[in-house]
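Let's practice the habit of predicting before peeking. Look at the sequence and jot down your guess about where helices and strands might fall. Then scroll down.
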Amino acid sequence: MSDLDQLTQSLARNLKRWRGERGFTLDALATRAGVSRGMIIQIEQARTNPSVGTTVKLADALGVSLATLLDFEQGPQVRVVPESEAVRLWSTEAGSRAMMLIGTDARGPVELWSWTLAPGDAFTSDPHPPGTTELLRVTAGELTLVVDGTPHAVPAGASATFEANVPHSYRNDGTEPTEMIMSVAIPPAR
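Done guessing? Here is the structure:
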């Protein structure tokens, strides 16, 4: 199989997969991408090689990178992120921090976070899109999880989950650092 044939087959397979993952009909994707329904059908049936511009429009409409849409891999994918590549997205002078450890776009974005909250510190979050769920596990100290104005004590070793489409915050009301691992699952774009 030539490189072009492999690319055509890969694009067909991945376009179908990501359109299905996002729950988009042919018409919905055509409208979002500004690409004709007929062109999408031809691409999904591996009957055409679209222009780079068309492929970029489709990737953007699906919310995936061009590399993801053209990925040749057919087996299970494993992504290992070294600790040195975790992204610090929030920190305070007191030593609190939030690190996004890893994320994925499969079936809607999912993120894995590592948090440390210094004694007396807090972080407040705006509501996320409807259907967003957070799961967390406190590994040290005690977390005060405030969801829609109601506080919940989550001690070390305990886990919690909640719908995150309301205001919420994480507080350390104790005297020892609070450490937790958190996952955020965001529903796919529709």
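How did you do? The helical segments are 3-22, 26-33, 37-44, 52-62, 66-70.
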